[in-house]
Amino acid sequence: MVMQYKVGLQNVGSYQVSGKPWAEGSIDATGATSVSFPEVTSWVQVTNNDNAILRVGFSANGVTDAGTNYLDLPSGTHGPFDIKVTELHLSGGAAGSTSVMAGLTYIPADSINNPNVSTASPYLNWSGSAGVG
To answer: What is the pLDDT of residue 103?
Structure first.
């Protein structure tokens, strides 16, 4: 049997050589908004440049008022968090006061198709069906 290695969520090499820089600043998170990454992240860092608490989650459901699966970030820089995601959801920050920096792998975001962690097609991010949303 011949093993064929390729980039993917379970491929260690995809994370060992990861870290393509990615950044977005001046994000308006006064209402719920999302930040999408072109590839799966290896790590993410979030900066909240306002005194308001910034709510960060991994699905739109997670950062709603009814959601409970989010992280409250006070003013300052937080991370880096070693997480593999294709998007972050933000809510509650002041207009233009949020920045996100990430290290990207070479795993294309559209290659994620994992119904074990997401029940919503096309499975591009963790939907909340597995405790994140």
So the answer is: 95
